[in-house]
Design brief:
single chain, mainly alpha, 12 helices, cobalamin biosynthesis, magnesium, CobS
């Protein structure tokens, strides 16, 4: 097996976690390991794009509500709604109260049930509400929030792919990336993202440093809580669970940034 290159890992991260036209050159455990370690980079690019769209609309004279809506819509477009779909399916699986095997079948169905609809509604409302509040203060606050939340969302995926987290099914994206990232490397990536978030928060002053770093910590805490519950209920992770973790982390980060 050839040695995994930096390019292989980045291609894997962008090719599986975004809808950008990036060709995945290798689809094996080594490439998955490198790719999931680079997942926050895909989040950073997604967040920068979202912040850019919001900024352009504000420059063109749009109000903060439209800018907030477009900022939330951009990551959905850049992932073809993959994470939102995963969130809805995970909510339906958990809400079904069925045994693991039956709940997993519920999650594989193409339609969205009532739990999924309600979860999507409240999550998207919360995200738009927070960004509306922040854009009312300044574009900078909204932009920092978009970038930090998107990066934290993909950091949650790095942590969910760490050693010891099993797949719920023998096939699919969950099986491809489950348990590939060594725990020490996952913690290193976490430390780097928390530090980078704090640096980004410096644009908002000393209080911004603390809030941005805290937003990432709370985000991964919320995602970890959901992850553990899903592992107990489903026996492991699936691609849908990864999507649910990303949206949970992003929303938690935004809520923290709205406080204070």
């Amino acid at each position: 097996m050839p040695r995994t290159s930096l390019t292989d890992g980045i291609r894997f991260a962008f090719g599986t976690l975004t809808a950008l036209p990036v060709r995945v050159t290798r689809w094996d455990r080594d490439a998955a390991r490198a790719g999931m370690q680079w997942a926050p980079l895909a989040g950073l690019v997604t967040g920068l794009s979202a912040a850019g769209v919001g900024g352009v609309l504000i420059l063109l004279g749009a109000g903060p509500l439209l800018a907030a809506t477009a900022t939330v819509a951009t990551p959905a477009a850049l992932t073809r709604g993959l994470h939102l779909d995963g969130l809805a399916d995970t909510a339906d699986g958990l809400g079904s109260a069925k045994p693991a095997e039956d709940a997993l079948r519920v999650m594989k169905q193409s339609d969205i049930g009532p739990f999924g609809v309600l979860t999507l509604l409240f999550v998207l409302l919360a995200q738009v509400a927070v960004l509306f509040q922040l854009y009312q203060r300044s574009w900078t606050e909204g932009a920092v929030a978009a970038i930090v939340s998107a990066t934290a969302a993909r950091l949650a995926l790095t942590l969910a792919a760490r050693t010891g987290v099993p797949p719920a099914r023998p096939e699919g994206l969950g099986a491809a990336v489950a348990g590939v990232v060594p725990r020490g490397r996952a913690l290193l990536v976490t430390a780097l993202v928390v530090g980078a978030a704090g640096a980004a928060g410096a644009l908002l002053g000393a209080d911004g440093v603390v809030r941005a770093a805290a937003a990432v910590v709370v985000a991964i805490g919320a995602a970890e809580t959901l992850l553990r519950h899903c592992v107990r209920r489903f026996g492991g992770v699936t691609g849908d669970v990864f999507g649910g973790l990303a949206e949970t982390a992003a929303t938690a980060a935004l809520v923290v940034l709205a406080l204070g």
